[in-house]
Design brief:
Number of strands: 0
Radius of gyration: 20 Å
Distance between the termini: 14 Å
Largest sheet: none
Number of helices: 6
Low-confidence stretches: 1-6
Length: 169
């Protein structure tokens, strides 16, 4: 894949920076989950008392972290590809396949954004919370919605970048 720092559009570069920052935030959330789990295991092993709601924190934190990595993977071109089939393809065909992938990501990202938004509203309206810590579930949905909105923007920027690559041939 071409170096997007030098060949991408301004939109692509901006979204890459935003997605990188958001992925790092997700990494810190995941690090927090790891710390909570380590503390829980150590507490259970040493004083026979685990961290209350450790599995709830794990569920919410891992979901938030996983969603936060999606925009970065899209804009940086790090999604799974079948390079064995495209190793001999011209730049035009690679750009076309990249464009098709970006279009699919854009469609799925928009669909997920819409449905997760409605799901968040339901979780908020029904006051759904975790069982032990009573954390409102819609808080996690809100964080995931930011990731999905950024995924839609990243997919659009990838689409534009691929179209530019196709024109250049």
């Amino acid at each position: 894949m071409a170096n997007t720092e030098t060949t991408g559009t301004r939109l692509h570069s901006l979204v890459l920076r935003m997605s990188t920052i958001w992925a790092v935030v997700g990494g810190f959330v995941l690090l927090g989950v790891i710390v909570a789990n380590v503390l829980s295991v150590l507490g259970a092993a040493t004083i026979n008392k685990a961290l209350p709601g450790d599995f709830e924190l794990t569920e919410l934190g891992v979901a938030i972290a996983a969603f936060s990595f999606l925009p970065y993977c899209q804009i940086a071109g790090l999604n799974v590809t079948a390079d064995i089939f495209t190793s001999g393809a011209s730049r035009f065909w690679l750009a076309l396949f990249s464009m098709l992938g970006a279009a699919v990501a854009l469609g799925f990202g928009a669909l997920l954004l819409w449905r997760m938004y409605l799901g968040m509203l339901d979780q908020r309206d029904y006051d759904s919370t975790t069982a032990i810590l009573q954390i409102p579930l819609w808080w996690a949905y809100a964080a995931c919605l930011v990731s999905l909105a950024l995924l839609v923007v990243a997919s659009f920027a990838s689409l534009v970048n691929s179209l530019n690559d196709m024109v250049k041939g």
